Amino acid sequence: MSDRAAVVLLSGGLDSAVTLAVARSEGFACHCLSIDYGQRHRIEIDAAGKVAKALGATQHKVVRFDLRVFGASALTDPAIDVPEAPGEGIPATYVPARNTIFLSLALAWGEVLGASDIFIGANAVDYSGYPDCRPEYLHAFEAMANLATKAGVEGKRLTLHRPLIYLTKAEIIRRGANLDVNLADTVSCYQATAEGLACGRCDACRLRRAGFERARISDPTRYA
Amino acid sequence: MSDRAAVVLLSGGLDSAVTLAVARSEGFACHCLSIDYGQRHRIEIDAAGKVAKALGATQHKVVRFDLRVFGASALTDPAIDVPEAPGEGIPATYVPARNTIFLSLALAWGEVLGASDIFIGANAVDYSGYPDCRPEYLHAFEAMANLATKAGVEGKRLTLHRPLIYLTKAEIIRRGANLDVNLADTVSCYQATAEGLACGRCDACRLRRAGFERARISDPTRYA
């Protein structure tokens, strides 16, 4: 087991929790980063704290950056409703450039820590149609990141790990269960209550519920 | 003259002011973005406001993101001194991943505005050795940005303009003077006083002063 430092983006959702478990299983000392960006589902941040602790993270940092200054997403703008049925194209819950901003913050923190590894739970299979979850996007971010920092100039290679990128939701859930992730701690719902109860109707809830069904694992999610 | 919307990163320094003037001369409706990131030289933000107004920006948005949460730069960490002589390698004033974070925020705002053009005053000639001012870095960011957003998915091309990239400081100053930029409004000093007086000794002051000398333009900078 190495104890190389890695920065792990941790939202409090299911995918990033499993990603943290994968990083831990590979021996990384995990510095978890959560971004409180003014999202509707702030309960996610509390969930992230629980998950980080349960999975033995080295530290968990919550950074506030209020993406509501730019508006234009159902996740940050109270005037836009969260859709309750899958639609065509890119959904209203897409937050402009969110992964680019989050990965940039992970890059900054990684540079300060001397970490050459960043983990993100992005997924291109059972995903919600977000441009910044696509493999080609993540590949381009990694290429850019390798030119962006001191480490890059000094020839130290940065790796952007996306261990879930080609897994279905059911496979992610199975992977998490095998790695002893307490999936009940995670919150996926876009409009979870302050107590962490899921609506059961939004895209994120539908994907999660179907994933548990297909994985034949009993769904620990508490629905409102 | 077109009136296409562009996002212009505006720090309040000399380079970004000239960049805004270039964007305006090309007919862009300029949405200026300044980031208050906990830098020592906050007077820059006031300078940015003056510059935006003087050059006819459509709007000027100041976004707060405190990069001090990550530490490790003389510009944000009061425990690290600003160097007063040019050294070897990457200087202490380098802020980890700063341009990547700023450009990501510009990308997010641009997407909300429907703007396909971003301007940055990065410079690779009389620069301070920052990795994220290099042409190859900016090229990689543009490639990533074109995969990151809704516009990218829909085939709308995003352009990252870096009009000063190959200019010397003297050429930038001449360009600014030709475009009637009031260079006295700009603040370059890393440790300017609250009144905007420059120290005259830091790297940024040295580069700026030498630029005015070489451009044979009288230096309007107010030194402490």
Mean pLDDT of chain A: 87
Number of helices, where a helix is a run of at least 4 consecutive DSSP H or I residues of chain A:
7
Interface with most residues: A-B, 41 and 41 residues
What is the succession of H and E elements of chain A?
Answer: EHEHEHEHHEHH
What is the top-level CATH class of chain A?
Alpha Beta
CATH topology of chain A: Rossmann fold
Describe, in short, the structure shown.
The structure is a homodimer of 224-residue chains. The first copy, chain A, is α/β, with parallel strands linked by helices.
Report what the structure shows.
- 2 copies of one chain form a homodimer.
- With 224 residues, chain A is α/β, with parallel strands linked by helices.
- Chain A has a single domain, classed as HUPs (Rossmann fold), CATH 3.40.50.
- Chain A has helices at 14-25, 43-54, 98-113, 135-148, 150-153, 169-178, 203-215; strands spanning 5-9, 29-36, 59-64, 117-119, 159-161.
- Chain A has a 5-stranded parallel β-sheet, sandwiched between helices.
- In chain A, helix 2 links the parallel strand 2 and strand 3 (59-64).
- In chain A, helix 1 (14-25) crosses helix 6 (169-178) and helix 6 packs across helix 7.
- The mean pLDDT of chain A is 87.
- The interface between A and B is large, with 41 and 41 residues.
List keywords for this structure.
5-stranded parallel β-sheet; 224 residues; alpha/beta; homodimer; Rossmann fold; 5 strands
What are the SSEs and their pairings?
2 copies of one chain form a homodimer.
Chain A: E1 5-9, H1 14-25, E2 29-36, H2 43-54, E3 59-64, H3 98-113, E4 117-119, H4 135-148, H5 150-153, E5 159-161, H6 169-178, H7 203-215
Parallel strand pairs in A: 1-2, 1-4, 2-3, 4-5
